[in-house]
Amino acid sequence: MSLAERLQSVLVTLAALLGLGAGLLLPIGGAAGYLVLPALLVMVTAVFLQMDAGQVGAVRRARSVVAASLVLNFVVTPLFAWVLGAGLLGGRPDLQIGLLLLLVTPCTDWYLVFTAIARGHTGIAAALLPVNLVLQLALLPVYVLLLGGQAARVDGATLVESVLLVLVVPLVLATAVRLLATRARGAGWRDRVIIGPASRLVLPMLYVAVAAMFAWQARTVVAHGTELLALVPPLLIFLVVLPLLATAVARLLRLPAAQRVTLTMVSTARNSPIALAIAVAAFPDRPLIAVALVVGPLLELPALAVLAQIVRVRQPAGTPA
């Protein structure tokens, strides 16, 4: 895990504070608003460039952990997210939708890092990445429209168009670039010239998007700052309950230790950058939804770091780490 990845929560916070200060002190709010979605689109495309769809075949070799992860991520978690939102965020529709968007989108990037740290099965984790992504594309509009209820207040066509713009277009573009680069110059050249730089572009683009969003919506953040604290209890509950539930399921299925770790990490990590991109595109007139999504990684990343140490596969004494 690189230094930039270890400091991601700190850097996201700094980007938010920098954008907030600039938005309050300088007349840049309108201009900053035009920067948010392009930065997120570049970031999402860079994430997809790193995804190898060929890994999907590996899911057939670990059907129990794959089936468990799909049930936890796409059945249990959406229902749990709805319960948390309705029970703890009633009367705050924008925060409810922000929480729902965050929790129904399983992670498609940094959970691999924490799985490796915890000595989980990284092959299965990598194979689950494109599976999680495709299911997000198909199910996210359904979750928002069915579970969002009156809080959503968004036209189904608008939501689908936003998903197409923010997820499908970057996915098609990234897949085409990978395929053309591989055929033209080979996998080695592709990884060195395209995939490597793309991987280093993700976090800077996230910081740019966060800073621009807070500059754009500085007045909104100041007006609703204390309201955002209401997100902390449901997020903390999720970050405690899901690892416990995943561990219990793994033990029930008698999964090997490495697969148990993988199931725990893939069921807990969320895809806040993707959720943020969807929020900006689908709810442009409700900025508090997007602002709420920034709270997610501030709690999630430190929690995943701690969780990785708790569930880490312990090697026998005398075995090299």
From TrEMBL:
InterPro entries reported for this sequence: Arsenical-R_Acr3 (IPR004706), BilAc:Na_symport/Acr3 (IPR002657), Na+/solute_symporter_sf (IPR038770)
| Recorded topology in the membrane | Multi-pass membrane protein
Query: What is the protein name given in its UniProt record?
Result: Bile acid:sodium symporter
Localization, per the record, is: Cell membrane
Q: Where are the transmembrane segments?
A: 31-49, 70-89, 95-114, 126-147, 159-181, 193-216, 228-249, 261-283, 289-311
Q: What keywords tag this UniProt record?
A: Cell membrane, Membrane, Transmembrane, Transmembrane helix, Transport
Recorded source organism is: Pseudonocardia nematodicida
| Annotated family | Belongs to the arsenical resistance-3 (ACR3) (TC 2.A.59) family.
